[in-house]
Design goal:
This protein has seven helices and 19 strands. The chain is of the alpha+beta class. The longest helix has 27 residues. The chain is globular and about 95 Å long.
Length: 396
């Protein structure tokens, strides 16, 4: 009876937006142990004359982060001009997560946890589990049915063994495990991290990213620096409250590059461009949306922050330095760009320097790939190509 009930629960079609997810790491322990199954429930927006957040402090929410889903507890609800944002933290982590979670990016609230059942699900997806739970029982059922057919052909009465009902139920249950997590029956390896990893998220990330950086212009134009931002979402994003910051190779504190205000908006799937005005003619020559007399020469990392210097939430960061206190995601980018070169974010994980340049296969697919690893997310362009908010939008 227990097997039958579990088989039905696993194979039943969940209501729209509900998800069954398997926890792969321990940032929410002890409340959600590794190997648990979590049911995430979508929370609809309420129709109210006063805007209100969908989630409250203390709720465990699931959201997309790079190429994974993460489930962490809400530590603080922040109201910005663009809507509500959530500061989250794993129960087992010492620090809060670096990036705020936008309201529209939260999948829902974790409402039910079944400890350790997910370990059984993970085993079923291994080669050995697939063999023991699918292949061998299937062959046994097929063989048994062949014997029944042969017996019928010989007009010999044959009683169906007790296992004739139990085995199909087990097969239904086992095959249903492959639909938890929204996956098919394939073998995969998952690296452990400090977050609760569930399943692959969309290729494009869900927040503004640093899409291209030039730290040295062509010969004779050493001060021609720029930072290009890209909005991979379907909605225009206002940059009010955000700032571009930089750090030197040994610096431990931020230096302002540009503080944005309410007049600065990035179009959906569009770009926004800052340029250094040390050479006063440079910003207008590339159509920069904003400029300051700051420069990037001699620095080793840049970031887009929401909030104050040093303590504000890092929305995105890029480093080309070995400095351990640099503003970086994952590992630093491997090359320091030379004169006229730039560091550009990929459109896809498989994008290359060849596919991203003019006439390349990924030239107009945007710059939305973000695995939170500078070394994997960027390529070195042989010649920079800055774009601004008036440039054509790009997406996959």
């Amino acid at each position: 009876m227990v097997i039958v009930l579990v088989a039905i629960a696993v194979n039943i079609k969940l209501p729209q937006g509900y998800k069954l997810l398997v926890v792969q790491s321990g940032s929410m322990e002890p409340s959600i142990p590794v190997g648990s199954i979590v049911l995430t429930k979508p929370t609809a927006d309420f129709l109210s004359p006063i805007p209100s957040a969908r989630f409250e402090k203390g709720d465990v929410i699931t959201y997309g982060a790079g190429n994974v889903f993460v489930s962490h507890r809400v530590e603080e609800v922040i109201k910005e001009e663009g809507g509500f944002f959530y500061k989250t933290k794993g129960d087992a982590n010492k620090d809060v997560d670096q990036k705020l979670v936008a309201e529209k990016d939260a999948l829902g609230k974790a409402t039910l946890t079944v400890p350790y059942l997910g370990r059984f699900v993970n085993f079923a997806k291994t080669p050995l589990g697939f063999l023991l739970m699918i292949i061998i029982p299937s062959l046994y059922v097929i063989f048994s049915e062949l014997l029944v057919i042969i017996s019928e052909l010989r007009k010999v009465r044959s009683k169906i063994p007790a296992s004739g009902i139990a085995l199909p139920v087990v097969l239904i249950f086992a095959s249903g495990l492959y639909f938890i997590n929204g996956t098919s029956a394939y073998f995969s390896a998952t690296e452990q991290s400090n977050d609760n990893i569930f399943q692959a998220a969309p290729i494009f990330t869900n927040h503004v990213v640093i899409s291209e950086v030039q730290i040295k212009g062509t010969t004779g134009n050493i001060d021609h620096d720029f930072i290009e931002l890209y909005n991979p979402t379907n909605t225009a994003i206002n940059l009010n409250g955000h700032r571009l910051v930089r750090r030197t190779g040994t610096g431990t504190t931020d230096v302002n590059v540009k503080i944005f205000n309410n007049s600065h908006t990035i179009p959906a799937h569009g770009f926004f461009l800052w340029a250094s005005s040390v050479d006063s003619t440079f910003p207008s020559s590339i159509g920069a949306n904003v400029s300051t007399t700051d420069g990037l020469g001699g620095n080793a990392s840049v970031a887009l922050r929401l909030g104050s210097l040093d303590t504000g939430t890092i929305i995105d960061a890029l480093s080309w330095s070995n400095n351990v206190v640099a503003l970086v995601e994952g590992s630093k980018f491997s090359s320091v760009p030379d004169s006229g070169q730039s560091i550009e974010r990929k459109a896809l994980s498989a994008s290359t320097s060849t596919s991203m340049i003019s006439s390349g296969a990924d030239e107009f697919k945007g710059n939305g790939f973000d695995s939170d690893d500078n070394a994997a997310d960027f390529i070195l362009r042989p010649s920079s190509q800055p774009q601004n908010s008036s440039s054509s939008t790009e997406t996959l």
